[in-house]
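User: Predict the complex with zinc ion.
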Amino acid sequence: VVVSSFCPATSTSGDETRNQLLTREKMMRVGGQLVLTREEEMANQRLRALKEAEMREALRTGSILPSMHFFQAKSLIEKSKVFNILKKMPKGAALHVHDFSITSPDWLVKNATYRPHCYFCFTRRGTLQFRFAHPAPPTPKPAECPQWVLLEKFRKGLHNVSDFDNSLLRNFTLMTENPHVTYADQDAIWAKFKTIFFVLRGLVSYAPVFRDYLSQGLEEFYQDNVLYLEIRASLYPVYELNGTVYSQEWLVRTYEEVAHNFAKAHPGFIGIKLIFSDNRTKNESLIKKSIQTAMGLRVKFPGIVAGFDLSIRGSGHLRGPRSQGQSQDFTARLKPGISQRLQNLEGTPVDRNLLDAVILNSTRIGHGFALSKHPAVLAEAWKKDIPIEVCPISNQVLKLVSDLRNHPAAVMMAAGYPMVISSDDPSAFGARGLSYDFYEAFMGIGGMSADLRTLKQLAINSIRYSTLSETMKKSAMETWEERWQKFVAGLARGPK
Amino acid sequence: VVVSSFCPATSTSGDETRNQLLTREKMMRVGGQLVLTREEEMANQRLRALKEAEMREALRTGSILPSMHFFQAKSLIEKSKVFNILKKMPKGAALHVHDFSITSPDWLVKNATYRPHCYFCFTRRGTLQFRFAHPAPPTPKPAECPQWVLLEKFRKGLHNVSDFDNSLLRNFTLMTENPHVTYADQDAIWAKFKTIFFVLRGLVSYAPVFRDYLSQGLEEFYQDNVLYLEIRASLYPVYELNGTVYSQEWLVRTYEEVAHNFAKAHPGFIGIKLIFSDNRTKNESLIKKSIQTAMGLRVKFPGIVAGFDLSIRGSGHLRGPRSQGQSQDFTARLKPGISQRLQNLEGTPVDRNLLDAVILNSTRIGHGFALSKHPAVLAEAWKKDIPIEVCPISNQVLKLVSDLRNHPAAVMMAAGYPMVISSDDPSAFGARGLSYDFYEAFMGIGGMSADLRTLKQLAINSIRYSTLSETMKKSAMETWEERWQKFVAGLARGPK
Ligand SMILES: [Zn+2]
Ligand SMILES: [Zn+2]
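Assistant: Here is the predicted structure with zinc ion placed in the model:
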């Protein structure tokens, strides 16, 4: 209610200041500098209207999805009109995903475990393990696995196969109905998280499954309108039925082959690159060797081996619970001298990882969850144009933040810090491709201000901050732009 | 492990950059500019050692207290050595507390409800109400309260009085063993929060209780080494046994008297000021009247009426759930023209409250939870030296943030944004004074970097950003400094 007795001069000046500040903030945000075409403006209007309606409804019902745990929000997100637009949106690239988490666990159950010669057992600690072999796996059985059971035969003896298949599924994902009860703390969820990879290994490391798993993962990202991936690859040994074990070179070559074949069959697909990520290295003295391996592979396969993931430094498993600082890793550029320079960083505390990332001119910073708490490091990283890889669902599921509106990237997105959105381990979190993470970023982290500009910038960033060559970036950008225009035209035109 | 083959030049340069960045960050933080005396340095060393030991232990056991809900962390906090130091620390002033939440609920049960002529009833909706009266409260009874029961008589008929008293206690506080279950969402906790004030009103608005409640509240803050308070006062009508109802002027005078008497009996106590906070104003057109009331009181009682709390604007109850932006209010300077200028702000969306606070040159911003997401407004507020009032436990209990290491003030503390720590409604949250909130700020929001400098600056800020006159600030600072030196000497000297 504006009362008539006020002084107009004061009011105008107040309004001016307000508008100046609001305009300044609009320009600062991620995407704030983009000038939209007429059609993009129309599409943006429609998107904003849908977003606002959804937020109003959320406030009315109290179901603010980004503030809920993803496991509980997932089915609600799937009903969202905004989410369905995000699914159709060409999102560019997924720059932070891990090798054994790109493909839906459903596929593993329904495809991989139904193949012939699949054996399973329970270790003494009760953990499920798989092994493909023909003839049957070696006797004497390894101590870890007292009894191998042929899955095909076992299924034949079951009354209810789908119950059994569902129980298998629960071994491949963190998904659970009541995550707050199932995972009381970070230790509990990390224990389960590690177990999942242990369970998956025997399945995914079987050469024929390995190829198809990768191909299926690319398919899921492609269907989610992601055209390029940088996969953090551990290069764990892959085996054949007869026990043959392949070298890391074989693995890199196979990644290259599968991606090549996939691209041939999928128009617009740009490809993949690998970021060598040796999670096994627990002993610090092995790091030099690991980096040398990466350098060797880079020389042999310059088209696909792009970087080295430094999440392994320090305690040997930065991908672990507790300290918030621990959740960052970074991708180093593999170039001469990097090995020595990395060695120099040994022995520094884990929480200085961010500093190291900046000093080493890393390509990108994984998560960067604590970066906003380090204003000087942040300023330096910004000057060097080092983006963060924001993985909202991962950070929530692994208990770094519960309400995603409080994610530290919210502050950085508002300030315009360079960033990309990725999904880390979508299969473990019950997600798929990038759309779920884009939804959380758009509705939660971005708040009311995020709009089509934000989304466009995030997609552009994913190509800009990739390890593609400049020529490849240009070509990737053209492919993306063509799709973007189609998407925008469809969105501007209206209903679905 | 530093390998011998590295190039020393590179290493030095890396170390230099690292040290430069670390030093820069150290200087930027809240308190980073303070130069400590030799004795303060010694005290700081001891404090840091205790803090580090406590954090190491927390990482070992997984019980990171600032990441736990306060209701569950409280008893563990009380065992902390750091907490016991913070209790002894002269904390300066409490600048953001509400009138009906400064005194322990225990006192209400054990003192107020044991006074003669105390009646209670349950409303039709099952809510407890109190009323002191002699003779018995009026008949016909008000529709809200079908039957008044004399508490004294009722207690005489009970087998187990302490069970009953505990059930009373649960009506005065949000405390519960399993807060995540009891309060599923913000609506649930706000419903209970509002009910608490409804229950308290009949007790605390009884003139003799009112005086003692205030005095007891000051006592609790004084024992917690807080020497000055700015109380957000609603000035609800206060009544006598015979039904007499006092004016707002009587209330202000009584606040002044009680504080005056308290100061006489408590050496070093500086006093209180009131920030008029008319939470009842649901109708926007009443705001002008409310501001005029505040201005009138300010003219009559310039020594105690200091400001006007604008949390009531917009929807009429900014102190409400859901939108994160809603949690901010601000204290306006009461000076000529403020009424008109406030009127001009009517009709702007609630989430622009922050902008208004800055444009109006507010004294302080309450909470400022969303400020870090508004970089341009933040810069403007910083330029104008407008501090935020950080109330960690309040924000956690009212479900704005769960892990306090993620509190937005963490970023602002690292960047050196001016702030004070306060406790909002300590009695409702199961806290007392300021020490619990200081603990959360020191161990959670401040992270590993917060040390004695941080604490000293926060205490200094609480005087600097108060509404005291410059002369009074100087004198308050002297009182505080004297106590600070004693505290530092004790801490430097060692064990307890
Ligand atoms: Zn990752
Ligand atoms: Zn408050």
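The first helix of chain A runs from residue 8 to 28.
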